[in-house]
Amino acid sequence: MPFIPHTENDTRTMLDTIGADAIEDLFDEIPAGLRARSLNEIPAGRNEMAVSRLVQTRAAQDTQALSFLGAGAYEHHIPAAVWELTTRGEFYTAYTPYQAEASQGTLQLLYEFQTMMAELTAMDVSNASLYDGASALAEAVLMAVRANRKSKSKRILMPATVHPTYRSVVNTIVRHQGIQLELVDYDTQGGHIDPANLPAEPGDIAALVIPQPNFFGTLEDVDTLTDWAQSHGALVIGVVNPTAMALIAPPGEWGNGAGADIVCGEGQPLGAPLSSGGPYFGFMCCAQKHVRQMPGRIIGRTTDLEGKTGYVLTLQAREQHIRRSKATSNICTNQGLLTTAATIYLSLMGPEGLRQTAEHSHANTQKLAKKLCMIDGVEKIFDRPCFHETVLRLPKPANEVLSALDTQDVLGGFDLFQAYPELGNAILICATETKTDDDLEQYATALRNVLA
Amino acid sequence: MHDTHTPLIFEHSRPGRVNNTHTQRNTASVNTIPDTLLRKTPPRLPEVSEMDAVRHYTRLSQKNFSIDTHFYPLGSCTMKHNPRACNTLAMLPGFLGRHPLSPEQHGQGYLSCMWDLQEILKDVTGMTAVSLTPMAGAQGEFAGVAMIRAYHDANNDTTRSEILVPDAAHGTNPATATMCGYATKEIPTDANGDVDVDALKAVVGPQTAGIMLTNPSTLGVFDRRIKEIAEIVHDAGGLLYYDGANLNAILGKVKPGDMGFDVIHMNLHKTFSTPHGGGGPGAGPVGVSERLKPFMPIPVVGKNDDGYYWLTEKDLPQTIGRLSTFMGNAGVLLRAYIYALLLGREGMTRVADYATLNANYLMAKLNQAGFDMALPERRATHEFILTLKRQAKEQGVTAMDFAKRLLDYGFHAPTTYFPLIVPECLLIEPTESESKETLDAFVEAMVAIQKEAESDAETLKGAPYTMPMRRLDDVKAARELDLRYKTDNNQ
Q: Of A251, A285, A432, B213, which is the most buried if we count CB atoms within 10 A?
């Protein structure tokens, strides 16, 4: 039987031991009226060959066009060793390391992961992952409200330059706890939050969210924003792209003081394939003083009975299985396997490899924008520096242009009209290190044709 | 297992050891970022060769117990075999390379799989509609309770402030209630392991928003009075939430929809055998009854004459909203779909049959070997609870001592000290994929450990002995927090 090893003889012997006549008898405590009718909607079982055939046909339908889409998920080269190692059964089929002595592999790896994320963000500590970038920001908002003991307001300033879906997810998750999310408008020339437009007397604020780079790919004036927030008693939540951290100032160094308080983001660029949107992983780092308010699993280094170094799940008194209704979050299962991939990815890339990836992606996007802006009616909208995405204005409605590009096998970017109608015919483009000069030229040619 | 220390990857690092196979050389840099925004000192990531990294992580993997290497009867976690076909097929290039925001016409293959999975899950749970987007069980719980809240709000029924939860419930249940702005009220369990219906009647009222239940419960028994419970809660205007952690026990046997539940979540990493990955990712789809359908989290896959498409805010204006940046753990959902195809309808029922057979067999054998069961008069479902209360009193050994010693015998420990209401307990879930020989060997190990408890409890309390580590100091870990390597110290 598929995935069931029992012989008829085994089943017989086992039933005898139990003292039952048939397997059916083992369900005799279920009231008869509740027993399921048939499963008509579920197809009959198939063997691996037939299922492979069916699924391969489906996968082949999903054609790969040349893509310049970013907007929260980024195509990067993933070294072959990453998933070769990650899918080793000992990582793939283990569970949360509850029995530390039999889980030192996962635990040590997660300790290494925490170290790498803390290094990337220049923060004191990291947890062992959350679900994804958007839900990590929701957890960061909840954490900030707990951690900012001086603030009573539960007010969070949320810039309009934060990914629109992140804002939507945060709203879904935090709305039941009396938290107010106040939108901060952006500067239409820079595509950033202009610190000069922030109120001089903002009142009691629990935290300011600072995206770096922001959804437009634009780099925010993080130092001024951090200083402004902290001078008004607000915590700073940084939402960052982890690849960008190899190139631009990390949140631990923002402002004149101690840097950001909490940092989170989407871990996908670190070794996770695009895969239709998941599984990815959310990461979260913070200043040491806030660590007891952090949600999710945290690994600590300790010693065993003989004094040897080892690793365990720690600070579990924050978590749902101990603290129940007073836990820092309800999260239990996280994205362990993706952090495994990220840890191996970062080991293989090293500081130099990650910097080159970041620089190359930045350079490619600059080159692409420059090429496209040579076409009549195409222009960059914002004048601030950006990382590996930027916003272009088109002379025709963005959805029409993108559809036309699609017929030439180019996914030309993300249509901003729905989230930012005030920008008009605007698209967000991204060219990572995976794009060659020929690829950039192919896009330019296609766009020229479409707009001609 | 090797009794060798594995240095951290950072300790293999040597300044200047650049592995540039993975970057493009000789590209002219175009940097338009002003100095003030640039990073001054590079992050201290490891500088190692590819072979260093491969050896290091291969060694680390060998320090894990896993389903692929060991019997892993972790109660409530359903550590069953993870068929390799599910992984291989989910990682086909067409699925793996697809950007989540690429147009629907480029994702018809993927979307059709998700549509089919929604249909399969609807049928197996008896619910009206399914949203696949929650990324783990706890997020499914959040979605479910948020829908209950949205339902009451839509009816202008705003006085409901409490969620009822049995005292044996998973910790995620009360934690979820809090996240949804509800107070939690605990319902005691009666002597037979069922929800105490009289206690329920006493606390249910106009303030009751709903109840969160696992059935079979975390005590490893099927709550026989579920219909009565449903009636009591519904009569008070509350809704019923089903925690699907134990769905493996009743797959194809009972549909939560038929028990009267309004909303359920499923743990696909448990029942549908997507891997546990050392802690995740999971997937926690939610199924709803007709009255909660308008509130489902988005996106949901729809189908019309042109093919498959995403239902969004426009189609479900009363939705509780989005829970993830894109559409949840897409690749995990694919693995579950492939597993469901391999099982088929008869395979689903067979899962429940043999998971239940294995649990009852193991319980009977352990009972015959002299161990005490928490609920000896009851049928086991897919799991059962053994209590070592007597051994704790007579020999001074604990459930933790047994758990650690089992590792030396080559078995991952069952879940320990959960549910909280049974003293010195082991929650044991063998799953359908284990053979009789494995279960017999586990019983032999338990018997051997019992003998050790009787003859030399002190040695037992020092276990494990054969792992890479002896017993680890949790208290020290929490007191002297060391959560990251300080690279400075060694360079």
A: A285
ipTM greater than 0.90: yes
Task: CATH number of the domain at B281, please.
Answer: 3.40.640.10
**Closest A-chain CA to B468:** A101
Which segments of A215-335 does DSSP mark as H helices, in order? 222-231, 320-323
**Is B300 inside a domain boundary?**
yes
Q: Is A31 helix (H, G, I), strand (E, B) or coil?
A: coil
Nearest CA-CA distance, residue A186 and chain B, Å: 19
List B residues 118-147 in contact with A (Cβ-Cβ < 8 A): 119-120, 122-124, 126, 135-139, 141-142, 146
- Which of A24, A325, A352, A414 has the highest number of chain B CBs within 10 A, making it the mutation to test binding with B? A325
Instruction: Quote the pLDDT of residue B28.
Output: 58
pLDDT of B290 reads: 96
pLDDT on residue B3: 52
> What is the distance between the alpha carbons of residues B460 and A344, in angstroms, rounded to a whole number?
37
Asked whether the beta carbons of residue B45 and residue A354 sit closer than 8 angstroms, the reply is yes
Give the domain A66-75+351-451 fold. Aspartate Aminotransferase, domain 1 (3.90.1150)
pLDDT band of residue B488 (cuts 50, 70, 90) is low
pLDDT for B489 equals 46
Helix axes A48-61, B330-368, angle to 10 degrees: 150
- On the question of pLDDT at B491 being above 70, the answer is no
Output the pLDDT for position B24: 66
Interface contact flag, A69 B96, Cβ < 8 Å: no
B465 interface with A at CB cutoff 8 Å: no
Question: What distance in Å separates residue A362's CA from the closest CA in chain B?
Answer: 7
Chain B residues within an 8 Å CB radius of A106: 60, 64, 278-279
Q: What is the pLDDT of residue B19?
A: 79
What is the rounded distance in angstroms from the CA atom of residue A277 to the CA atom of residue A389?
19
* pLDDT value for B490: 41
Asked whether residue B18 is assigned to any structural domain, the reply reads no
Using alpha carbons, list the distances in angstroms from residue A348 to A273, B13, B17, B53. 16, 11, 11, 7
The pLDDT tens digits for A162-195 are 999 999 999 999 999 999 999 999 999 999 999 9
Tell me the nearest-neighbour CA distance from B164 into chain A, angstroms. Answer: 12
Is residue A324 predicted with pLDDT exceeding 50?
A: yes
**Lookup: tokens for B198:** 């009289």
The CATH code belonging to domain A80-343 is: 3.40.640.10
The answer to whether residue B112 is domain-embedded is yes
Q: What tokens appear for A198 in the block?
A: 């922030």
Give the helix/strand (H/E) hosting A128: none
3-state helix, strand, coil in chain B (%, to 5): 40, 15, 45
Instruction: For residue A272, give how far its alpha carbon lies from the nearest alpha carbon of chain B (Å).
Output: 9
Does B369 reach chain A within 8 Å, measured CB to CB? Answer: no
The pLDDT assigned to B21 comes to 79
Q: Is the CB of B179 less than 8 angstroms away from the CB of A329?
A: yes
How many structural domains does chain B have?
Answer: 1
- Contacts from A379-384 at CB under 8 Å and sequence distance 24+? A381/A191, A381/A423, A381/A426, A382/A189, A382/A190, A382/A191, A382/A192, A382/A216, A382/A218, A383/A189, A383/A190, A384/A190, A384/A191, A384/A192, A384/A218, A384/A219
Closest CA to B351 of B359, B362, B343: B343
Kindly report the nearest CA distance between residue B244 and chain A, in angstroms. Answer: 14
Candidate from A315-324, B27-36, B258-267, B363-372 with smallest mean pLDDT: B27-36
Stretch(es) of chain A classified as CATH 3.90.1150.10: 66-75+351-451
User: Hey, are the CB atoms on A119 and B278 less than 8 Å from each other?
Assistant: no
Q: Which domain holds residue B144?
A: 85-343
Q: Which residues of B touch A41 (CB under 8 A)?
A: 119-120, 122-123
